[in-house]
Amino acid sequence: MSRIANLRKKNRSRGDSPEDEFDIVQSLEAAFTLYRCTPLYKFELSKLCQYAKEIQKFIEGQMTRILPFENLEEFENIKMLKEGSVTDVVISRIHVPEWNALNDLPIGIEIQFRPKRSSTEQKFHIILFPSNRHGNDANNSLSFSHYPLVIIKAPQRITTIFAEWIQTQFDCRICRYHLQSSSLKSIVEEWAKFVFNQGKFL
């Protein structure tokens, strides 16, 4: 049994708490996609385990639908997803070394997917990065959580389903964030790799 499996088993045995810690084991090898997200309405850190169950159920439900597709590649992705199942979803805060805002840590989501007739699981990752500004209105700050930057490493089908879930659940909007500067893109890529490699789920 792998280290991540042992840690996840330990996590579950202690009440499925998001405070249990495990390492991120999959580095950012493929290209990630950058998104912008408006404030989340009534997002609660105390409900991360509940959100994980809701995401798993929502993805499973969406994968049973027959949706229109634009090209053969997208059709094959949908076919692959329909022939498998989501085995687990884990959501937790991520501790990043030298991250200054200890009270506003990134939120990591790991989706485990097992294709039909395969014993090998695939892992997809989503990270929500918090803002250090929460607005001037204290009442609004209590209702809204600011995670303006989202990094996703997953097939487009999973990304689309996740975007639908988070927009519906928290009355927000998520859209692609295109970096015009190649230098800035390189900096963000290195930063993202650091988070994926050095960060730890709490």
TrEMBL record:
Chief subcellular location: nucleus
Domain of life per record: Eukaryota
Subcellular location: Chromosome, Centromere; Nucleus
InterPro entries: CENP-L (IPR025204)
Keywords for this protein: Centromere, Chromosome, Nucleus
Pfam families: CENP-L (PF13092)
GO cellular component: chromosome, centromeric region; nucleus
Family: Belongs to the CENP-L/IML3 family.
UniProt name for this protein: 12084_t:CDS:1
